[in-house]
Design a protein that fits this description.
Shape: elongated
Order of helices and strands: HHHH
Helix content: over 70%
Number of domains: 2
Radius of gyration: 23 Å
Structural class: mainly alpha
Number of strands: 0
Length: 117
């Protein structure tokens, strides 16, 4: 898949969501819609760490809480490895797109400066 296909898929998705991007450049579309979405997808692990079991009173309640916490930690350990790979990929992709946009803008400015000379 090349960059034009990827941008076209993103524009199709935004059109399905009711966002009109027809008058915007690829750079504007990336900045306004795709980068914020990528930034929010960087932290995929926060949801699994946010869950807390409720504390219970009494002997049986404490046993239930203990067992539930063991299950929670086991699930976190299983999910965590794959999620960490995905989170790292999301982070690296976000940073790469961010740097490419900055580089593209600087090259456009340089080109405009050369044209004006």
């Amino acid at each position: 898949m090349n960059s034009k296909d990827l941008l076209q898929k993103a524009e199709d998705y935004l059109a399905n969501e009711g966002v009109d991007v027809s008058g915007k450049s690829d750079s504007e579309t990336l900045k306004e819609y795709i980068l914020p979405a990528m930034e929010s997808s960087k932290d995929v692990l926060s949801a699994i760490y946010a869950f807390q079991s409720r504390g219970r009173a009494g002997f049986l309640g404490k046993i239930k809480t203990f067992v539930q916490r063991k299950i929670i930690f086991t699930v976190i350990n299983v999910i965590e490895k794959q999620s960490m790979r995905q989170q790292k990929f999301n982070e690296l992709t976000y940073r790469a797109v961010e740097k490419l946009i900055a580089e593209n803008e600087s090259l456009k400015k340089e080109l405009e400066d050369l044209k004006n000379k």
